[in-house]
Amino acid sequence: MTTNSLSRPIPTPGAAQPGESAARQPSPPSRRPRRPGRVGLYVVLCVTALVIVVPLVWIFFTSFKTDFDAINRPASPWPIPFVFDAYQTLSSGQQPIFRWFLNSMAAASLQTVIILVTASMGAYALARMEFRGKRIVFGAIVATLLVPPVIFLIPNYLIVQNFGWLDSIWAITIPGAAGAFGIFFLRQFFIGLPGEIEEAARIDGAGDIRIFLQIVLPLSRPALATLAVLSFLANWNDFLWPIYVLLSPENLTLQPGLAVLQGAYSTHFGIVMAGAVIASIPVLIIFTLAQRQIVDSVASSGLKG
Predict the structure, then answer these.
(1) Which of 215, 222, 221 is nearest to 198 (CA)?
(2) How far apart are CA 175 and CA 181, in angstroms?
(3) What is the Cα–Cα distance from 284 to 98, expressed in whole angstroms?
(4) Percent with pLDDT over 90 in the chain
(5) Pick from 291, 289, 297, 138: nearest CA to 219
(6) What is the mean pLDDT of the chain?
(7) Domain coordinates of the chain in residue numbers?
């Protein structure tokens, strides 16, 4: 007994003991190989980003070119020399571009607010309330999305004319203030909200209006922000309808106003591009501020019907 006990090896600290699992030994970190599909996705995203960004960068630098440099061939992406003539011309008052800018901001903001109010109320009624003919009403609203908007041009013009709204801000805000897309979009989001919260509020004595204002709308901020951005941009980029209903040059919005900068026989490309840069500033700011809300709403809406 004494001889066998003395002949056993003395264990050293850090050494693996007999019977221990090999899994306890630290293994060298393994490098996960990149899949070819992911690399290809990155390439496609980079190419798509370049296709979108390059024209914007070209417009920006062209706005600082002279008229000769803007039409010179081969075209240079950099302005040589770097001048501010286009922006000085726009700010000189020869064309009321800043008045057009304010008109577009006022019209787009007013229509956005009206759309949020009407679409949220209509969508909540179709998503949570039960009434006779509910499916027929929703189907009729969705069916209007299949109709080309240009078909409503003459009827809307006659309505605006009969109300005496021609050449006013109401002519470019009211006709498009109750769109079917906003109702459809918010209805899909409202359906995805948990109904248990509303049921608990009803048990506490809350009515439909209070539930809608204090529970549903705060939970729907991502969807409301996305609809606000889309509605603002739809009115901001509208070109055809303001041409028909806005008659005075000072009452034009920015998009048809930029067309005035193009002459009948010659075009000052630097001035036109400077106007395009000014028109794109609100769009870039809105997308930068609402990017997270847009992603959240797209990820959580349209999943239930």
Answers:
(1) 215
(2) 14
(3) 18
(4) 34
(5) 297
(6) 83
(7) 37-83, 97-300
Candidates 249, 227, 239; CA nearest to 296 is 227
Confirm if 152 and 89 have CB atoms less than 8 A apart: no
Is residue 266 predicted with pLDDT exceeding 80?
no
Cα first-last separation, the chain: 80
Tokens of 35: 């899949």
CA 203, CA 121: separation in Å to the nearest integer? 22
Distance CA 170, CA 21 (A): 79
Structure tokens at 202: 């009803």
Residue 172 CA to residue 263 CA, distance in Å, equals: 25
CATH architecture of 97-300: Orthogonal Bundle (1.10)
d(CA 295, CA 287): 11
pLDDT band at 198 (very low <50, low <70, confident <90, very high): confident
Residue 302: predicted pLDDT: 46
Report how far residue 227's alpha carbon sits from residue 109's, in angstroms, rounded to the nearest whole number.
Answer: 12
* Number of CB atoms found within 10 A of residue 50's CB: 11
3-state SS, the chain, equals CHHHHHHCCCCCCCCCCCCCCHHHCCCCCCCCCCCHHHHHHHHHHHHHHHHHHHHHHHHHHHCCCCHHHHHCCCCCCCCCCCCCHHHHHHHCCCCCHHHHHHHHHHHHHHHHHHHHHHHHHHHHHHHHCCCCCHHHHHHHHHHHHHCCHHHHHHHHHHHHHHHCCCCCHHHHCCCCCCCHHHHHHHHHHHHCCCHHHHHHHHHCCCCHHHHHHHHHHHHCHHHHHHHHHHHHHHHHCCCHHHHHHCCCHHHCCHHHHHHHCECCCCECHHHHHHHHHHHHHHHHHHHHHHHHHHHHHHHHCCCCC
